[in-house]
Specification:
By secondary structure, the chain is α/β, with parallel strands linked by helices. Helix content is 29%, strand content 25%. The protein contains six helices and eleven strands.
Length: 195
């Protein structure tokens, strides 16, 4: 075993909260979270975006933080990780074009390791071909891709606060679901937290 390692796939304009909150929460609990981005090295950053729901027909977008990468995507071995986190935002739409990223996603799916995907993150799951016969929550605009990939789209409540679990996969429509998504992801990882 290689410690309690979690892999996080990010890219420029990843959703700020969906990268920052899981990264910090999992680290607080003792997990080593490796945030990686193809084409970038440890110490480099990805730009994040803050997406919010302000009464428009879709979400709004504002500049977020510079999120520092701490591992090299091309040097990682997926077999050394317990689980995978895929934040949303705009990063998944172009990360899904990278076959090495899709191969990494397939490793976690085929090995039955826990996968947490937020918002637009299921775009990577759909592109990797790992959603056939599964149930998946996601941001509503990603619904057509999820369904075309053979999954059943799980409609969420109006405030996007729920997560959905299907086997090793926990998905959620947006960052308001952090408490539910992280709780279920930790349960899948076998974590025990006593308060």
């Amino acid at each position: 075993m290689h410690g309690k390692r979690i892999l996080m796939l990010v890219g420029d304009f990843v959703e700020d909260y969906e990268a920052m909150v899981p990264f910090q929460a999992l680290a607080m609990l003792g997990y080593v979270v490796h945030a990686v981005c193809p084409g970038k090295k440890p110490g480099q950053t990805v730009r994040t975006a803050v997406h919010d729901f302000e009464g428009d027909q879709t979400y709004t977008e504002k500049p977020g933080h510079q999120f520092v990468l701490n591992a090299d995507f091309h040097a990682i071995d997926p077999s050394h990780y317990l689980g995978l986190v895929i934040p949303g935002g705009r990063a998944p739409e172009y990360l899904r074009l990278d076959e090495a990223v899709l191969k990494t996603v397939r490793h976690f799916a085929e090995a039955g390791k826990p996968i947490a995907a937020h918002c637009h993150g299921p775009q990577l799951l759909a592109a990797a071909g790992v959603l056939q016969g599964r149930q998946c929550a996601c941001y509503p605009a990603v619904r057509p891709e999820v369904e075309q990939a053979g999954a059943t789209w799980i409609k969420n409540d109006r405030d996007y606060a729920n997560a959905h679990v299907d086997g090793n996969l926990v998905t959620a429509p947006a960052w308001p679901a952090h408490p539910a998504l992280l709780r279920e992801f930790l349960r899948l990882l076998g974590a025990r937290i006593e308060l």
